[in-house]
Amino acid sequence: MDPAPLSSEHGGQCFRRRPAAPRRDALPDAPPQTVVPTRRELFLGYLKIGLFGFGGVAAWARRVIVEERHWLTEREYAEVLGLGQVLPGPNVGNAAVMIGRRFHGLAGALLATAGIYCAPLLILVGLCLLYDRYGQLPAVAPAMAGIAAAAAGMVIGTACKMAGKLKLAPEAIALLLLATACAAWLRLSLPLIVLVLAPVSIAASLWRAGLILRDETAR
């Protein structure tokens, strides 16, 4: 049965109105949904990363893991990659071990590591044989220089994209710029940069989380 009309102040009639829907821009963003890969998907995903990540594995790994397959959020991937950067060894390989272990334990770590390294290893052996045979040709050196420039551009582009989506705090941005200056202009070694800035970065994160120094600062 239809609701009875309501009288207005001016003698007319008005009808019940549905409550106004909340503005779309006022709604909070939905939390990103992540997917737990099977062991087969984990191996094939890292096989794809290793097969197509020429010169810029971190860039391709982020695209596959975060954008295509949604295994991790942007922040989770940045945290894992950052920890892999601090540890000895290749950062993406370290991240593969951590991500594989997160989903499927030791078997996942082994599958992710095998997937990311088996295809590049076979291709590398083949390219080394070709380079030993044809490396002295005049066209080889310019081609290698072009590949190196493209790889550097991929790494820089990935870093900018990750930094833009993470909504970094002011102190994190300052540390990011300081690390960039130490590596690009001062030409300091990576172990030295990590040794100096990693404790500062950890302390800043703990302070922002309210775990250290905040009580003393408030006094």
Automatic annotation (TrEMBL):
Q: Which ranges does the record mark as transmembrane?
A: 43-61, 106-131, 137-156, 168-186, 192-213
Keyword Membrane listed? The answer is yes
| Region: Disordered, residue numbers | 1-32
Could you confirm whether the keyword Transmembrane helix appears in this record?
A: yes
Return one GO MF term: chromate transmembrane transporter activity
Task: Please name the Pfam families in this protein's record.
Answer: Chromate_transp
Localisation per UniProt entry = Cell membrane
* Any one annotated GO CC term: plasma membrane
List, alphabetically, the InterPro entries matched: CHR_Transporter, Chromate_transpt
Supply the alphabetized keyword list. Cell membrane, Membrane, Transmembrane, Transmembrane helix
Topological relation to the membrane, as annotated? Multi-pass membrane protein
Q: Which PANTHER family match?
A: CHROMATE TRANSPORT PROTEIN-RELATED, CHROMATE TRANSPORTER
Family assignment from sequence similarity: Belongs to the chromate ion transporter (CHR) (TC 2.A.51) family.
Question: What protein am I looking at?
Answer: Chromate transporter
Species of the source: Roseicella aquatilis
